[in-house]
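User: For my dataset I need records formatted as: sequence, then structure tokens, nothing else. Please produce one.
Assistant:
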Amino acid sequence: MKINFRKLLGKKNTLQDLYPEISFVNLPESKNKYPLFISLESNNIYAYSSRFMIEGNDLLRLLKIIGKYFNEFITCNKTTLSFNNKTLHYYQFEEFGQVVVDIITNEGRLIHDIFSLNMEPPLPNTVFPDRDIESFGSLQGDLEAWWNIYWHPFWCTLSREEKKHYVEQKNIHEELKEFLLLHV
């Protein structure tokens, strides 16, 4: 009889224990919703994960909604909450001088309420205030990382018309409007 020592001695994924299949609820298609939540079901973790950059005034609104579902107000940057067979991993950190939130949860109602906050990431000129807007066009290095991880998931939820409306509503330079509309 062959013994698989790697399996016998290996660490079990504790996320699989915290997010069992029995507590999983499939969310309706959220393609045009922000922030983007991705199912971890293919890894036998029955939850959704999201990472998004948040404007300071949205952070308190987010924390209040989390408190509504987990009966506790988050006061630290990293925590795990459980309530009524639902779990939340919350991690908040700073990147590019902005607040970033990582969430893993199996609480579908929370995700729905996060969508209803209508949050958006800070604009490129907020994240990179010392950069010349003309240098944005190259989308390389840290700008490319920011764009792919934080901005694009928001930007791609908007239709072409919504993008035009968005840039007109914001008090931004004409060059930045052009840049954003070129990346439709």
